[in-house]
């Protein structure tokens, strides 16, 4: 995130864990900016509460406009798939399309995160230094 | 096309739409790169349009389709009824595009960079169409590949949030590693139809389902 910088001489990977409370009240574009600014600095961004489907759609769109050869290849994003028959999803649909799905989401630079395994209950990923 | 011919076609289209029960529904063909979306679009166009023109070129190199292409007024006849749809073939959706992957396909760097730029524009365009301009979705998956990817779960979630009717097509059933059940397990809330767009396998059921869902 913008306020906190890792010392330049470290070769670790910075992880920003952003609470649902911090994201609440932000517009879709503000959320997308926070995510992409962090990822473009090489950080791993973890959202306590994920994005809505509409925000995910816009995140893909904005990411595409920022991809630049030899600079930024895009993002890797991981969250649990929502079961079609669980209560949250059903209520979410009843409440309308912008209801928050409340799913932990991890986003990072595409060239630093590799998904090793993913199913309904487990996501295993390898994070490397650039 | 000449001006007069174009004008006549426009008037004809306007007149027919005045008298039709409803406008053709725009059905977007979505899915990850290399799932066979354009092969499917071309087969539908060949089977149901007068001249059978291809919607776009097919290729095993990812991101061959880098612009959304629309084929209008495709009339599909099923059980004595006629269903009219516009097919929108869209670029494969992804969250990353690395031009160096194209270099593996014997492409020069300049061409690979241009292809990646066009691919990113195409994906952005596809997302825009999904939010604004389609009435239903055919989601095409390569049944020989793992369907549990983030792009698939995100896109299905986006489609569901828009309340769009969606059919999942498990393509490439002609391949040895194909598993339609794996796709059914990944998306049990939606109807999955097996097919091979390349070989033309199970197309009768494909057209039955298109007419049932989007007619």
UniProtKB/TrEMBL annotation, chain B:
GO (cellular component) term, any one: cytoplasm
SUPFAM superfamilies, A to Z: P-loop containing nucleoside triphosphate hydrolases (SSF52540)
UniProt domain AAA+ ATPase: residue ranges: 23-179
CDD domains: Era_like
Bias type Basic and acidic residues, positions: 60-71
Molecular function as annotated in GO: GTP binding
InterPro entries: AAA+_ATPase, GTP-bd, P-loop_NTPase, Small_GTP-bd
One GO term (biological process): tRNA wobble uridine modification
Annotated spans, Disordered: 52-71
Name of the protein in question: GTPase SAR1 or related small G protein
């Amino acid at each position: 995130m913008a306020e906190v910088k890792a010392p330049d001489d470290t070769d670790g990977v910075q992880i920003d864990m952003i609470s649902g409370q911090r994201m609440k009240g932000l517009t879709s574009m503000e959320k997308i900016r926070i995510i992409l600014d962090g990822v473009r600095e090489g950080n791993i961004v973890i959202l306590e509460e994920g994005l809505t489907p509409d925000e995910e759609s816009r995140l893909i769109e904005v990411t595409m406009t920022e991809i630049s050869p030899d600079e930024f290849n895009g993002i890797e994003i991981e969250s649990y798939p929502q079961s079609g028959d669980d209560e949250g999803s059903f209520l979410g649909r009843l409440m309308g399309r912008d209801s928050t799905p409340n799913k932990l989401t991890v986003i990072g630079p595409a060239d630093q995160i590799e998904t090793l395994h993913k199913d309904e209950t487990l996501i295993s990923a390898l994070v490397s230094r650039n | 096309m000449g001006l007069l011919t174009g004008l006549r076609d426009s008037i004809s289209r306007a007149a027919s739409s005045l008298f039709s029960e409803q406008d053709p529904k725009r059905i977007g063909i979505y899915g990850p790169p290399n799932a066979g979306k354009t092969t499917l679009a071309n087969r539908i166009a060949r089977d149901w349009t007068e001249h059978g023109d291809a919607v776009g070129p097919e290729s095993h190199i990812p991101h061959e389709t880098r612009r959304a292409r629309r084929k209008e007024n495709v009339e599909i006849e099923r059980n004595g009824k006629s269903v009219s749809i516009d097919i929108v073939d869209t670029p494969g959706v992804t969250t990353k595009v690395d031009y160096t992957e194209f270099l593996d396909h014997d492409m020069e760097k300049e061409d690979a960079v241009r292809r990646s730029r066009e691919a990113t524009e195409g994906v952005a365009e596809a997302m825009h169409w999904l939010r604004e301009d389609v009435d239903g979705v055919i989601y095409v998956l390569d049944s020989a590949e793992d369907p549990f990817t983030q792009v698939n779960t995100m896109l299905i979630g986006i489609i569901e949030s828009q309340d769009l009717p969606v059919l999942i097509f498990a393509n490439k059933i002609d391949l040895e590693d194909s598993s339609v059940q794996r796709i059914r397990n990944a998306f049990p809330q939606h109807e999955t139809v097996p097919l091979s767009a390349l070989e033309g396998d199970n197309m009768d059921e494909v057209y039955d389902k298109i007419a049932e869902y989007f007619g």
